[in-house]
Recover the amino acids of this structure.
């Protein structure tokens, strides 16, 4: 892959780099500058633009492009690329004078990286969203280092669990019984044994992808005041990502049983507990998938349908009955979201514009469905 000089740079790449320079990372995202950027781009495109506003702060970014054409910036893969690809695809379709049976709406919402609770989770309940009468949605995916393109049809459910253990306090020189640490240790062992079982299940079956099993990681330990004091209370926090085929009721009962088996005074609470997993069918019974996959086949794009191992705003969209796919057209690209040196080659970015320029007309031309009413 080679890069063009600044004077020859493709205008879509220039727009992409302008967007990348806006700092939209937590905990102080510059959403104001991002909104202004989209308002101005929409004005230039002759698009209507409606802002449903929250509060955020300001801070700029630099987007560096090296001599090979790789663009380094937070958001290059996750997921400012997709935002600009949507806009540039719509620009092309408008310039060419296309009209479609369905309307194409683009939504730009905040807070996805911190759960979407002040963004898409609220937006899908608002009258502005219902007025869109959405039949289908596209949201972010993940890069694929091979020739294939990953597409996500469902997601694991985030369960953030805090286990608290209470026990006898005392001087740390003594062999105290029924301590908080001993009981918490039993729960930690049970959960990490489950983690190992799921890991082995994934490793032993080449047909399984990460999103098909339930993952868990111990992410926080709390408790204690001094080296020589046995604490009365200790806690451990876990990040579970529950596969969509899991019986949620039975799984929660399993968590409770691990706590009960550890002894008296061991409880759990949820900081997050997503209970509405939905699966978008990936066969021709689903007209949206049929249209999506047909375009990819016509463009000789190999698709790898998977369950998203993490969580995106698609979970809120699917939960209100709208089928959705997670797709970021980045193949031959290492997965670098949230990583150092997050980057995307400009040729991959521009190819993504080409792909959306074909996908959007096909999806906007799906015939009327009973669910549309």
């Amino acid at each position: 892959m080679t890069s063009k000089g600044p004077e020859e740079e493709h205008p879509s790449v220039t727009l992409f780099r302008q967007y990348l320079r806006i700092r939209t990372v937590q905990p102080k995202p510059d959403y104001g500058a991002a909104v202004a950027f989209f308002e101005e781009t929409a004005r230039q495109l002759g698009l209507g633009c409606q802002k449903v506003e929250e509060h955020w702060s300001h801070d700029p970014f630099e987007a560096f492009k090296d001599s090979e054409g790789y663009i380094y910036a937070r958001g290059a893969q996750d997921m400012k690329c997709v935002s600009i690809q949507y806009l540039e695809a719509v620009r092309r379709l408008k310039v060419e004078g296309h009209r479609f049976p369905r309307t194409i709406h683009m939504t730009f919402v905040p807070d996805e990286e911190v759960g979407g609770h002040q963004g898409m989770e609220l937006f899908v309940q608002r009258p502005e969203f219902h007025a869109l009468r959405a039949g289908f949605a596209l949201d972010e995916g993940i890069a694929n280092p091979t020739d294939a393109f990953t597409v996500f049809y469902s997601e694991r459910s985030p369960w953030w669990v805090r286990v608290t253990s209470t026990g006898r306090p005392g001087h740390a020189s003594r062999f105290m019984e029924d301590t908080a640490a001993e009981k918490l240790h039993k729960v930690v062992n049970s959960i990490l044994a489950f983690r190992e079982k799921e890991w082995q299940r994934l490793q032993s079956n080449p047909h399984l992808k990460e999103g098909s099993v339930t993952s868990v990681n111990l992410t926080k330990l709390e408790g204690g005041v001094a080296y020589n004091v046995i604490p009365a209370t200790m806690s451990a926090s876990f990040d579970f990502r529950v596969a969509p085929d899991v019986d949620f009721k039975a799984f929660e009962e399993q968590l409770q049983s691990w706590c009960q088996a550890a002894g008296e005074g061991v409880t759990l609470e949820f900081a997050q507990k997503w209970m509405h997993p939905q699966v978008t069918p990936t066969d021709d019974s689903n007209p949206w998938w049929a249209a999506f996959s047909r375009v990819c086949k016509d463009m000789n794009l190999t698709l790898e349908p998977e369950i998203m191992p993490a969580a995106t705003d698609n979970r809120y969209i699917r939960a209100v009955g709208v089928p959705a796919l997670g797709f970021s057209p980045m193949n031959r690209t290492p997965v670098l979201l949230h990583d150092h040196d997050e980057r995307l080659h400009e040729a991959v970015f521009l190819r993504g514009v080409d792909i959306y320029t074909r996908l959007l007309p096909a999806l906007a031309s799906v015939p009327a469905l009973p669910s549309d009413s």
Summary: The first strand starts at residue 64 and ends at 65. The CA atoms of residues 199 and 205 lie 10 Å apart. DSSP finds ten helices and 13 strands in the chain.
